[in-house]
Amino acid sequence: xxxVGFYQPRDSVKETVAKMEEHHDIxxxxxxxxxxxKCCSLVFLDLQKLNPQNSIAITRELAxxxxxxxxxxxxxxxxxxxxxxxxxxxxxxxxxxxxxxxxKGAYVAQKDHSxxxxxxxxxxxxxxxxMSQLCKEAFAHKLLKSGINLTPKEIEIAYLLGKDLRxxxxxxxxxxxxxxxxVHISHxxxxxxxxxxxxxxQYFKELKYKEKGACS
Length: 216
Prior knowledge:
By secondary structure, the protein is of the alpha/beta class. It has 11 helices and 5 strands; from the N terminus they run βαβαβαβαβααααααα.
């Protein structure tokens, strides 16, 4: 049986963890990273108990073992630090540590979706969506070399799909309606010949880092 793991949760979170198993029949475990890697498919890291260097290193270690990672944050963390955690492999960052929020985080992770705080989404809007012209051209060039001809807006959405963001988050970052994003993604499916979102996300991830010096 695979458990949902918690690494060094604060006391208030420990109380919630007990309720996850009692009220939602979610098997949980609190233990060392070595134990959690062996037994868990999803691990919550309480980032209040970890310094940035350790949290990033632990996230990378878990991600290498194909363990999904959710970070429990306080809401005062620097956006650049949160972005580093996402790049290291954290799938969601949750500020609300209530029972319903943690359960939702676990279910969302099972569907390979992300939960990101507004501060990080705003940072992404300002610093990642506004990619340099060089990054846009490089990504579009790689798409064309692969025989995929997307519109400028589809290229932006493809780039963000490669970051494993949900449609709602992509819409927020592009200041667009979620229905509009869905239409663009349906066109991307047609042009790539792919039918599964996970397949599409993985393809764009690999494409971005295919050549040395690729933009992140």
